[in-house]
Amino acid sequence: MNDLSNYRKSYEKSELLESNIPEDPINLFNRWFHEVEDYGGESEVNAMTVATIGLDGFPKSRVVLLKKFTEEGFIFYTNYNSEKGKAIAENPNVCLSFFWHTMERQVIIKGIAKKTSEMTSDSYFESRPDGSKLGAIVSNQSEVIPSRGYLEENLKQLEKDFESVVIPRPKHWGGFLVTPLEVEFWQGRPNRLHDRIRYTSQHDYSWKMDRLSP
Q: Does the annotation place 39 within a ligand binding site?
C-alpha cells in the first residue's frame, strides 16, 4: 500500500483579494497566464485539462494545449472524430482546468463548446509545421490500430504523397471554442485557507463575483 497522507505543502506564494482583481474573468485569466509565464518553471503554461461526458455516460479528462483566448472564450484544436470530439458533439458542456504549481494557482472553467469557423481552423492549421499537419491526417484519433509501426509506415507514405505539395486541413480536424459560463480562480494559501473566487456569467453579459469557502 502507498500511504500518501504525509505529502503536505504550505501554500504561501500569493493571495487573491476582491480589492485588486478585475470584474471580468478573462482579464484576470490573462493576468495570471502571463504572470505564470514570466515566473517560469512551467514547461507548457497553456497545457489544460479538458473534461467531457463520454458517449458511455462517464466523464473523461485529458490534457490538451490552449491555442487562443479572447473575450469570447478559449480555443483548442482536435480531431472531430476523436473520442472527445464525438463527446462534445453529443454534449457540448465541458470543463477546462489549469494547474500552475509554480505559483500555486488553479483555474476551472465551465462552458459550452462549439466548433470554430472553417476559416479559423484553416488559419491555425496553415501555421503548423508540416510534420504536425501530416500527423493530423495520418491519425484516426482514438481508434484501435495494430501497432506503432502501422502508424509510422502510413506517415512515411504521406510524406511521399505530400512532398513539395501544400498540405490541406482535413475536414474532420479543427477548433473548438469554449464559451465560459463560470470561471473559478484558486490561489493556494497557508493552513489550507485557500482563496477561491468564482465568476458566474449573467444574462446581461456581466459577471457575478463570489468568494467561496476553501
A: no
